[in-house]
Amino acid sequence: MEPLKEMFNRDFYRHFADVFAGADKKFDRNGFYKDVTEALETRELNGRLRHTALMLGKHLSNDYKKAVEVLMKAAPSLKTGYTALVLPDFVALYGKDHFDLSMKALQYFTTLGSAEFAIREFLKTDFTRTLTVMKQWAVHNDHHVRRLASEGSRPRLPWSFKLDAVIKDPSLTRDILESLKTDDTLYVRKSVANHLNDISKDNSAYMLQLVKGWDTQHPHTGWIVKHASRTLIKKGDKDSLSVFNFEKQVKVKLVQFKLSAASIRLGDALTFTFQLKSEKSSPQKLVIDYVVHYPKSSGELSQKVFKLKEVVLQPGEELSFSKKQVFKDMTTRKHYKGKHLISIQVNGKIYGEQAFQLKITS
């Protein structure tokens, strides 16, 4: 699989330079291409993105308004997706002294490639003014813009810095979330759920109190609240479990918990099976997860909780489960050899674990 950084390759830059040369007669196509591809192989994904924005700054007009006009003219001819983040990145780099124009530019550029990272630079320098604009975006007719209102103001957006003001006072973004809690676009609802999940990591009581006031019978709102509560449910948070009527006093017995092998190699799959038997005289609504304990480079174990199934276990009922887990390196996880653990978790409580060895050959 080709590395993600190869989205910014020489073919991309040739097209990119051609587009800007067509949008601005004064644009030095060859000079830009030379500068932007210099030492290209030494830069990773985000380094390439930032370098592209910097080289645009070098080759476009020093007049920010004129530069943005060229960006706007070029934008429809550029590829959408991650590489289009160059445009909002340019705004974040050069547009802080031109607030109104920059907000208009980000509103447009987010429809081509999300401006979630760029808008946070404005939140950092002028929080109140920027948040006011984002509250207006939350009721925009374009779903990309509505998503930006939520995603850009997340307290703990991955690949970005934390918004300490929102972590300290999560009510700051409440108006945005209230506007989007019944949004009919899944792309937006996922962002709202992730925003709420972020809040739950620092202010769980506030998050639960907020969603308790929402109509979870509405299918869109119900989906958001359920997805937003995933971290709390995995932790077995009693207040969160009660919101969804999960059993707080679980009585089950784990039996026949087995692994398909005591040792596997990197790239292999491991299958595990188990049964859960009810030991309660009334039905139990359960969320069943499994936890993989991965060794880190230091030898310490880190946990990753994976969702398995939600069930209602009847009195005396016994259910069987089987799951295959693949162990291979990904961009988000590097594996290390040695002892690993798999444990079964029911409503946030561990009921048993099994160990196996992961072998890595060079």
Give keywords.
8 strands; three-stranded antiparallel β-sheet; ARM-type_fold; five-stranded mixed β-sheet; globular; alpha+beta; 44% helix; 362 residues; DNA alkylation repair protein
How is this fold's topology laid out?
Elements lengths: L9 H14 L5 H9 L7 H15 L4 H11 L11 H9 L4 H11 L6 H10 L1 H11 L5 H9 L12 H5 L5 H7 L5 H17 L1 H9 L6 H10 L1 H5 L3 H6 L8 E8 L3 E3 L3 E10 L5 E12 L5 E13 L4 E9 L11 E9 L2 E11 L3
Parallel strand pairs: 2-8
Antiparallel strand pairs: 1-3, 3-6, 4-5, 4-7, 7-8
Residue stretches low in confidence (pLDDT < 50, at least 5 long) are none
Numbering strands along the chain, what is their spatial order in the largest sheet? 2-8-7-4-5
The end-to-end span amounts to: 19 Å
The whole-number mean of residue pLDDT values reads 96
The amount of beta strand, in percent, is: 15-25%
How many DSSP H or I helices? 16
Domain module count: 2
Order of helices and strands: HHHHHHHHHHHHHHHHEEEEEEEE
**Biggest β-sheet strands, sense, barrel:** 5 strands, mixed
- Percent helix, as a range, is 40-55%
Radius of gyration: 25 Å
E-strand count: 8
Estimate the global geometry from the Cα principal axes.
Answer: globular
Could you say which structural class the secondary elements and strand pairing correspond to?
Answer: alpha+beta
